[in-house]
Design a protein that fits this description.
Structural class: alpha+beta
Helix content: 40-55%
Mean pLDDT: 97
Radius of gyration: 21 Å
Shape: globular
Order of helices and strands: HHHHHHEEEEEEEEHEEHHHH
Number of strands: 10
Strand content: 15-25%
Number of helices: 11
Strand order of the largest sheet: 1-4-5-8
Bound molecules: acetoacetyl-coenzyme A
């Protein structure tokens, strides 16, 4: 067992950390208020290779491993979790499944523009009536001359308004109602209509849109096998959830950094508040839980890099890291007291940003279901969705 990062992993981490500290963190409060970051940021991230960290060089990426990408997500999210989720969805929910499941022609066509950041990636699974029960989706794809007529609505699609490529799931077998009979399609954002921009509690710098599609998608844009797209969605989320765990770790780390610095400076009753055991215990718990969440996250990323099963490990990492981030960002507010509740300090933003990590890419309840199915064996469970 070796807990040291490799030299290349440390280098990529340092590139992301320095860029985030100089170009993202100083603007994060402003982007939170403005509900968006400047488009030019994506150009800067692309130029540094941070929009294709773990994409092989022959496909236009930086050629690093998945763990390096996870380190990058932590650093970006520590500065601005909205930027973190933009890169996370772009990479692990769109680019990586195209690499993993695409034909050689599909990879050559769709991956390089994504890896360079010329196109931004989205993942369109969720619908108004199907979130946790993703297999209940009703967007349809009917065979027509030259391809598929895809019709339906998708909800809460990160990055849709940024323009690029959508990995979209639609029902190709109308006789089914469950996860069976669903196929995956690679769609351009020009083929979809943005029907709504969501107002959210946090992650305000990221774009969250509802979309509608009523378009003919060429036959060569089907990803993977007909009617077997749900497996692609699930395998994609297995990796994506590790990214959300890293995002949660980054948010919690940022909150801890502020709380620690504040505790060492703020005085009450003639002493720094860091001198009080009540505050020391809070900071000790934060440091310990962040460490534990990071280790779960890095282990899951390592398993993925080894090509080993990581469904359970990724679900555990996401579940623990997201609940930890919600808990510990609240504790950071408590350390700062009244100041923590104001926009003079960033911890209230961290608290708002952390909450969604317990919801998207599978709620905490779904992560527990995934873990329970893995440790008990699905067939042992009676009350399980079919
Ligand atoms: N890898 C590969 N295949 C898998 C898999 C995995 N981890 N898990 C399941 N599958 C396959 C099954 O083998 C099965 O395949 P066959 O039909 O060929 O046998 C198929 O997928 C259906 O599996 P289940 O029967 O287990 O499906 P289910 O209906 O019971 O649902 C679920 C399983 C885990 C509850 C799933 O619906 C789920 O993960 N729900 C949560 C959805 C979610 O996470 N949404 C996130 C949206 S994206 C997002 O949030 C992005 C963002 O903006 C940040």
């Amino acid at each position: 067992m070796d807990f040291e990062l490799a030299a290349e992993q440390r280098e990529i981490q340092a590139v992301a950390r320095e860029f985030a500290a100089a170009e993202i963190e100083p603007h994060a409060a402003e982007w939170d208020r403005a509900h968006g970051f400047p488009r030019a940021l994506l150009g800067q991230l692309g130029a540094l290779g941070l929009l294709g960290v773990c994409v092989p060089e022959e496909h236009g990426g930086a050629g690093a491993d998945f763990l390096s990408y996870i380190l990058v997500l932590e650093e970006l999210s520590r500065a601005d979790a909205g930027v973190g989720v933009t890169v996370a969805v772009h990479t692990s929910a769109c680019t990586l499944p195209l690499l993993a499941f695409g034909t050689e022609a599909q990879r050559a066509r769709f991956v390089p523009p994504l890896a360079r950041g010329d196109a931004i990636g989205c993942f369109a699974l969720t619908e108004p009536g199907s979130g946790s029960d993703a297999g209940a989706l009703v967007t349809s794809a009917e065979p027509v001359d030259g391809g598929w007529h895809v019709r339906g609505s998708k909800q809460w699609i990160t990055n849709a308004s940024l323009g690029g490529t959508v990995l979209l799931f639609a029902r190709t077998d109308p006789s089914t109602r469950s996860a069976r009979g669903v196929s995956a399609f690679v769609v351009d954002t020009a083929q979809v209509e943005i029907t709504r921009t969501e107002e959210k509690l946090g992650l305000n710098s990221s774009a969250t849109n509802d979309i509608a599609i009523d378009a003919v998608v060429e036959g060569d844009r089907m990803l993977g096998e007909l009617h077997h797209g749900f497996r692609i969605a699930m395998a994609t989320l297995d990796g994506g959830r590790i990214g959300i765990a890293a995002q949660a770790v980054g948010i919690a780390q940022a909150a801890y950094d502020v709380a620690r610095a504040y505790a060492l400076e703020r005085e009450t009753f003639g002493h720094r508040i860091a001198d009080y055991q009540a505050i020391q215990h809070k900071l000790a718990n934060m440091a310990m839980e962040i460490d534990a969440a990071r280790l779960l996250t890095l282990r899951a990323a390592w398993l993925k890099d080894q090509g080993r099963p990581h469904t359970e490990a990724g679900a555990k990492a996401k579940l623990f890291a997201s609940e930890m981030a919600r808990r510990q960002t609240a504790e950071a507010i408590q350390v700062l007291g009244g100041y923590g509740y104001t926009k003079e300090f960033p911890v209230e933003r961290y608290y708002r940003d952390a909450k969604v990590t317990e919801i998207y890419e599978g709620t905490s309840e779904i992560q527990r279901l995934v873990i329970a199915r893995s440790i008990l064996g699905r067939n042992e469970l009676v009350a399980t969705p079919s």
